[in-house]
Design the sequence.
C-alpha cells in the first residue's frame, strides 16, 4: 500500500502544515457475508494551501473518502482530523459547527437555495452562524469569481457555470480551513468547467486556500497540485504537478487492471 | 390500470391517511348524529307506546302544552268522567289518572330533587297497571295522604331514603309528604323525576280538588280496536273532552321530545358541515400535490399509451378508494361518537341503560354518500389536471412544476370579491331585513369563494408583510421560512384556506353572538326599572302565595305582577280581529319595565278596564287612545277594554321584553281566567330602604319557595347572557374541529415540502445549519401559513359579522361588539396550530441524513 504522507517531500511553498488528516480510516457497509468495504484503512494527509484531487474509477471509494474527511459520513474505524480537531467521535452538534466554521463545500449540483439571491447564498454559512462577513474579503472573493453584477439574481436566473461560481464563492467567503468539492464541474460544459477550475486553482495560488476535490475527469485533475488515486478503497498511487495526459494514462491502467 | 391505481393508493398511505382522517371526521359526525338521534327517537317511541293507554280521555284545550307552561294552568276533567266512561260499550276498564308536569319537589334542606338537565318533575297518582313505567323495588305503595313514592334514579342521585320528608310544590300549593317507597323504571327513564301520591292526595296536591282528575285511561275490550273505542267515547262524551288513541298519544309525546332531538341533530350536523367544508380543502390539496409529485409517472403512463381519460379515471378511482376507506372508518367512529353522546345524555339524568344503538339503513347510506361525494368532488380538479399532463412530462427533468402566473386567477377572484363586497354593502344598508338577508347570503358566499380563489394571490401579498420582522427576529432561518412559504403560493393558499374557512365561520358567529349579548344588555339597562324580579327557575309560572310573600316582605314596596295568556282575540272598532298572546300587568308596570309609549298616559297601564295597544296595530285598525276594543278569551268570555296608551312598535325578534302584544290589567285576567299564574313579579325596595339589605331579606323570605329566584338587574343580565354563552361554547367547539382538520392540512403540506426540499435541507445541513435551525425553519414556515389563514379568515368573518349586525340593527341587534379577546385568541391559537402541525415534519427534516439528502436523485 502506498502511504500518501509525502506532502512535505514536495512541499508547496505556500503550504504550511496539514489541513486534514486520516489514520487507518475504514468504512464498511453491512455485516458478515454482505460486508462491503468502501475504505480500507486509508492513511492520508492533505497539506495546507494545496489543491488536491482525488481520482479513481467508479466504486473506488473516492466520494466516501471525501465525505469521511469532511465529517459528512461516519467511519467504521480509524481516525481523522480537520486541522488539529479530531472529528471522529464528534457529536452531530459539534460536527455541524465544524462544518459551518471550518469547511466549505461545493457539490456537483444543487448547491444553492433557490429562494435566496446569489449574495445571500454566498453569505449563508455566516448568516447561519450569526456572524458578520468580512466585507473586504467578501469583495475580494466576489471580484475573483467575477459575479459582482449578478449578486441580486436568484439561482434560477444564473447559468450552470455561474451557479457553481456562486457555490465556490460561498465556500471561500467564510475562509474555511479546507474546501471539499464533490465533482464540482461534473454538470458543466467544458468551457464553464474550465472557468470554475481555473478559479479554484487561483484561489489556492493567490488566496492560499486548501481545496480537496473528487473528480473522475483527468482534465479537471490536471488543475490540482497533487492527485491521489484510489482503487478498491485504498490509495494506490499519487501524482504531483499532474498533467491531463499523465492522469489519463494512469487511469487507463485501472481499466486495464479491471478488464484483465 | 386499476392495479396501478391501487398500488399508487397504497404507496401514498401516509398522505392518504391524513385525508382519510378528514373524511372520517365528517362522516363520523354525520353517522354518529344519525345513530344517536335514531336511538333516542326509537327509545322514546317505545317508551310512549308501552306507557300510553289504549285510549286516553282528557280535557280539550286550545292551548298547547307550551302555552300551559307559561300560564300555569292545569288541564283537568271532572272525577265523574271515569264512571261515565267505564259504562260505555267496548271499555274493559277505566282508570282515573292524575299527572301534572313542572311541579317542584324539595327535600328537607329545601334543595330541589328535580332533574338538573331541564327535564320535568312529574307528579302522579299511584295505580298499578301493565303500562306503569315503574315498579316498587323497596318500601311500599302510597296508601294515605302524606305518603309518596319517588323513582329510583332520583332517589340515587339526590340521596333520598325511605322515611325522608319532601315538600311537593304544585299550582294549588305545598304538600308535605314522607317517602314510603322507591320505584324503579322498567323502561327507559327519559330523565324526569317522578313523585307518586295516593290518588285522593294527588288530586288535592296537584289539581287542588278531589273533584278533578287529569285524564281517564281506558283499556279496550277484546275485539274492539282503539279507533272504534275512541269513536264511541268521543261521540258519547261530547265537547270539552279530548280522546286520543295509544298511537296518537305516543306520537304527540314523541313530537314534544322531537324538538329537543332536532336541536341536537342540527347542532351536530353543523359540526359535520364544518368538517366537510374544511375537509374538502385538505383532500383537494392532497390530490393536487400527489398529481404534481407524480407528473413524471403519469407522463410515462401517457407515453406508453394511457389516454388522458384513463389517467383522470385513475385519480378519481384513487379518490373513490379514499372515500370508501374514510367513510368506513368514519362510520365506525360514528358509532363511538353515538356511544359518547349516549353517555353524555345519561349524565344529564336520562337513563338509557339497556338501550342498544339503533342502526337504520339510512345511516350507512348517508355516511358513504357524504364520504365518497366529498372526496371525489375534491379530487375532481386535480384529476382533470392529471389528464392534461403531456407524455413529454415523462422525459423532462424532474423539477419543480412550472408555476402558471396568477393573473387569470387574480382577475376572476377580484370580480367575485367585488360581487361579494357589493352584496355585503347592500346587506348592511338594506332597508328591510328580508332583502338584506338575501344580499347577506350572496355576500358571504361570494366573498368566501373569492378568498379561496384569491388565496394564492393573498399569500403572496400578505405573507411578506406578515413575515416582515422574521429576518430580524429569527435570522436567516426566519427569512428562509418566510420565502419558502411563498414558494408555491397555490399550495400555501389552499392549505391556509382550510383554516381560513373555519376561522371565518366561527368569528362571524362570534361577532353576532357578542353583539347580541351587548345589545340585550343595553336593552335590559334601558328597560329594567325595578330593583328586583322574582321569577320561576324553569321559567315556569308562580302561584299566588309567592306574590303574597313578596308583597308582605319587609322593606318591599308594592310589587308589580306580569302574566301571559296566549290565544286572546282582540276585536277592533273596524270589525277586524287579531289573535295573539296578551300580557297582563299591575298598575305601575310602566315604571318597573320602561317601554316607550307614544300616546296616552303610561301611568294608566294596568288600571282596571284598560288596554294598551301597539301603535302600529292601533293605526292599522283606526283606534286611538280613548277608543274601545273587545277582548275575547279562550273559553269564550269577553270584555270591553278602553285604550289608555299606545306603545312604540318594535321590529324584529331580537327585542328583549314582551314584544308588541296588547297589555291588559291583571284585574281583567283575574275575572276571566283566574287560574293563570304570575310569570314575573317586579319589586322595588320601599323608599328609603337599603337595597341590598332588602334583597337579602326578600331572599330569606322566599326561602320556602325554592322554585323561584330573586334577581337584580345584574343577575338578570347574567341569566339572559347565560343563554348566549351556550351558543358561544358551541362556536368554540366548531372552531376546535375546524382547527383539528386544518392542522392535518398543514401537516400534509409541510410533509410534502420537506420531501420536495430534501436536497435543499441536506445542503443546508452540509454547510453548517444545525438540526435546531432546520426545525425552526420548518416551524416558522408552518406558523406563517397558519397565521396567514387565520388572519384572512378573521377579516372575512369579522366583515360578515359586522354586516349581519348592521342588517339586524333595526331588529334589536343595536350594538356592534367585536370580541377582540376571541380575535387575539384565534391568532395565537393559529400560531400554536402551526407549531403543532410542524412537529413531525420538522423532526423529519432535522433527522434527515445529510449524505442521503445530497446524494438523492
Sequence:
Amino acid at each position: 500500500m502506498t502511504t500518501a504522507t509525502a506532502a512535505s517531500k514536495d512541499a508547496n511553498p505556500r503550504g504550511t502544515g496539514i489541513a486534514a488528516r486520516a489514520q487507518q480510516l475504514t468504512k464498511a457497509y453491512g455485516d458478515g457475508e454482505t460486508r462491503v468495504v468502501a475504505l480500507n484503512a486509508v492513511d492520508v494527509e492533505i497539506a495546507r494551501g494545496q489543491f488536491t484531487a482525488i481520482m479513481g474509477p467508479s466504486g473506488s471509494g473516492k466520494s466516501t473518502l471525501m465525505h469521511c474527511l469532511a465529517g459528512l459520513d461516519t467511519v467504521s474505524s480509524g481516525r481523522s482530523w480537520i486541522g488539529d480537531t479530531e472529528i471522529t467521535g464528534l457529536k452531530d452538534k459539534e460536527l455541524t459547527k465544524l462544518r459551518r466554521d471550518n469547511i466549505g463545500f461545493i457539490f456537483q449540483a444543487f448547491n444553492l437555495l433557490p429562494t435566496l439571491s446569489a449574495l445571500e447564498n454566498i453569505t449563508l454559512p455566516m448568516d447561519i452562524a450569526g456572524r458578520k462577513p468580512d466585507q473586504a474579503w467578501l469583495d475580494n472573493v466576489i471580484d475573483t469569481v467575477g459575479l459582482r453584477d449578478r449578486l441580486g439574481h436568484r439561482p434560477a436566473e444564473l447559468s450552470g457555470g455561474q451557479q457553481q461560481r456562486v457555490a465556490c464563492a460561498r465556500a471561500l467567503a467564510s475562509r474555511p480551513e479546507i474546501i471539499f468539492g464533490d465533482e464540482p464541474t461534473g454538470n458543466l460544459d467544458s468551457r464553464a468547467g474550465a472557468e470554475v477550475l481555473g478559479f479554484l486553482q487561483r484561489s489556492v495560488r493567490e488566496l492560499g486556500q486548501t481545496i480537496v476535490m473528487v473528480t473522475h475527469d483527468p482534465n479537471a485533475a490536471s488543475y490540482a497540485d497533487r492527485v491521489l488515486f484510489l482503487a478498491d478503497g485504498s490509495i494506490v498511487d499519487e501524482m504531483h504537478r499532474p498533467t491531463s495526459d499523465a492522469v489519463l494514462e494512469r487511469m487507463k491502467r485501472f481499466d486495464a487492471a479491471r478488464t484483465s | 390500470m386499476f392495479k396501478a391505481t391501487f398500488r399508487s393508493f397504497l404507496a401514498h398511505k401516509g398522505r392518504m391517511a391524513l385525508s382519510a382522517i378528514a373524511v372520517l371526521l365528517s362522516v363520523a359526525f354525520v353517522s354518529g348524529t344519525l345513530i344517536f338521534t335514531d336511538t333516542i327517537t326509537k327509545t322514546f317511541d317505545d317508551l310512549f307506546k308501552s306507557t300510553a293507554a289504549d285510549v286516553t280521555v282528557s280535557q280539550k284545550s286550545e292551548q298547547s302544552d307550551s302555552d300551559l307552561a307559561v300560564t300555569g294552568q292545569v288541564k283537568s276533567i271532572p272525577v265523574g268522567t271515569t264512571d261515565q266512561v267505564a259504562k260505555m260499550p267496548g271499555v274493559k276498564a277505566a282508570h282515573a289518572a292524575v299527572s301534572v308536569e313542572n311541579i317542584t319537589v324539595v327535600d328537607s334542606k329545601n334543595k330541589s330533587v328535580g332533574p338538573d338537565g331541564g327535564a320535568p318533575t312529574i307528579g302522579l297518582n299511584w295505580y298499578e297497571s301493565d303500562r306503569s313505567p315503574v315498579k316498587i323495588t323497596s318500601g311500599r305503595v302510597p296508601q294515605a295522604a302524606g305518603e309518596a313514592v319517588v323513582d329510583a334514579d332520583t332517589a340515587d342521585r339526590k340521596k333520598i331514603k325511605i322515611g325522608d320528608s319532601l315538600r311537593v310544590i304544585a299550582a294549588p300549593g305545598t304538600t308535605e309528604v314522607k317517602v314510603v317507597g322507591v320505584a324503579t323504571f322498567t323502561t327507559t327513564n327519559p330523565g324526569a323525576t317522578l313523585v307518586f301520591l295516593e290518588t285522593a292526595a294527588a288530586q288535592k296536591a296537584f289539581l287542588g280538588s278531589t273533584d278533578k282528575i287529569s285524564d281517564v285511561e281506558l283499556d279496550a275490550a277484546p275485539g274492539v280496536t282503539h279507533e272504534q273505542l275512541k269513536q264511541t267515547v268521543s261521540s258519547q262524551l261530547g265537547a270539552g273532552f279530548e280522546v286520543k288513541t295509544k298511537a296518537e298519544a305516543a306520537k304527540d309525546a314523541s313530537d314534544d321530545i322531537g324538538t329537543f332531538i332536532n336541536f341536537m341533530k342540527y347542532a351536530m350536523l353543523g359540526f359535520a358541515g364544518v368538517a366537510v367544508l374544511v375537509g374538502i380543502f385538505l383532500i383537494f390539496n392532497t390530490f393536487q400535490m400527489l398529481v404534481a409529485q407524480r407528473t413524471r409517472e403519469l407522463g410515462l403512463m401517457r407515453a406508453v399509451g394511457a389516454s388522458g381519460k384513463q389517467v383522470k379515471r385513475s385519480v378519481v378511482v384513487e379518490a373513490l378508494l379514499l372515500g370508501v376507506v374514510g367513510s368506513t372508518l368514519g362510520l365506525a367512529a360514528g358509532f363511538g361518537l353515538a356511544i359518547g353522546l349516549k353517555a353524555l345524555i345519561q349524565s344529564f339524568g336520562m337513563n338509557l341503560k339497556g338501550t342498544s344503538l339503533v342502526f337504520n339503513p339510512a345511516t350507512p347510506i348517508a355516511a358513504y354518500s357524504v364520504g365518497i361525494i366529498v372526496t371525489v368532488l375534491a379530487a375532481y380538479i386535480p384529476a382533470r389536471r392529471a389528464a392534461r399532463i403531456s407524455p413529454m412530462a415523462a422525459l423532462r427533468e424532474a423539477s419543480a412544476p412550472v408555476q402558471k402566473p396568477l393573473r387569470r386567477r387574480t382577475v376572476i377572484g377580484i370580480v367575485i370579491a367585488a360581487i361579494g363586497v357589493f352584496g355585503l354593502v347592500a346587506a348592511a344598508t338594506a332597508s328591510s331585513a328580508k332583502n338584506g338577508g338575501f344580499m347577506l347570503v350572496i355576500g358571504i358566499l361570494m366573498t368566501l369563494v373569492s378568498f379561496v380563489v384569491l388565496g394564492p394571490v393573498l399569500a403572496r401579498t400578505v405573507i411578506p408583510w406578515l413575515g416582515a420582522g422574521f429576518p430580524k427576529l429569527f435570522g436567516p432561518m426566519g427569512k428562509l421560512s418566510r420565502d419558502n412559504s411563498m414558494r408555491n403560493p397555490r399550495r400555501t393558499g389552499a392549505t391556509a384556506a382550510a383554516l381560513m374557512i373555519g376561522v371565518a365561520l366561527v368569528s362571524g358567529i362570534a361577532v353576532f353572538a357578542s353583539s347580541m349579548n351587548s345589545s340585550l344588555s343595553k336593552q335590559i339597562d334601558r328597560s329594567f326599572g325595578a330593583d328586583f324580579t322574582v321569577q320561576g327557575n324553569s321559567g315556569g309560572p308562580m302561584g299566588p302565595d309567592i306574590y303574597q310573600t313578596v308583597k308582605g316582605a319587609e322593606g318591599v314596596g308594592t310589587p308589580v305582577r306580569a302574566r301571559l295568556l296566549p290565544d286572546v282575540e282582540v276585536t277592533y272598532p273596524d270589525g277586524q280581529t287579531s289573535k295573539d298572546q296578551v300580557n297582563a300587568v299591575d298598575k305601575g308596570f310602566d315604571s318597573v319595565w320602561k317601554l316607550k309609549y307614544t300616546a296616552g298616559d303610561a301611568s294608566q297601564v294596568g288600571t282596571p278596564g284598560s288596554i294598551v295597544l301597539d301603535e302600529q296595530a292601533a293605526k292599522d285598525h283606526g283606534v286611538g287612545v280613548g277608543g274601545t276594543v273587545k277582548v275575547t278569551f279562550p273559553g269564550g268570555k269577553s270584555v270591553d277594554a278602553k285604550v289608555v296608551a299606545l306603545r312604540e312598535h318594535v321590529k324584529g325578534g331580537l327585542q328583549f321584553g314582551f314584544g308588541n302584544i296588547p297589555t291588559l290589567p291583571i284585574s281583567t285576567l283575574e275575572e276571566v281566567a283566574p287560574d293563570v299564574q304570575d310569570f314575573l313579579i317586579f319589586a322595588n325596595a320601599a323608599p328609603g330602604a337599603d337595597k341590598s339589605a332588602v334583597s337579602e331579606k326578600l331572599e330569606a323570605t322566599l326561602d320556602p319557595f325554592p322554585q323561584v329566584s330573586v334577581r337584580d338587574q345584574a343577575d338578570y343580565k347574567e341569566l339572559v347572557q347565560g343563554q348566549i354563552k351556550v351558543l358561544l361554547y358551541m362556536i368554540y367547539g366548531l372552531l376546535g374541529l375546524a382547527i383539528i382538520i386544518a392542522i392535518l392540512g398543514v401537516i400534509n403540506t409541510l410533509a410534502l415540502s420537506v420531501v420536495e426540499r430534501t436536497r435543499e435541507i441536506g445542503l443546508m445541513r452540509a454547510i453548517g445549519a444545525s438540526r435546531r435551525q432546520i426545525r425552526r425553519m420548518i416551524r416558522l414556515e408552518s406558523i406563517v401559513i397558519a397565521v396567514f389563514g387565520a388572519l384572512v379568515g378573521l377579516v372575512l368573518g369579522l366583515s360578515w359579522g359586522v354586516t349581519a349586525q348592521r342588517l339586524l340593527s333595526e331588529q334589536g341587534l343595536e350594538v356592534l361588539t367585536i370580541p377582540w379577546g376571541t380575535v387575539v385568541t384565534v391568532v395565537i391559537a393559529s400560531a400554536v396550530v402551526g407549531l403543532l402541525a410542524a412537529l413531525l415534519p420538522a423532526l423529519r427534516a432535522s433527522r434527515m441524513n445529510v449524505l442521503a439528502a445530497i446524494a438523492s436523485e
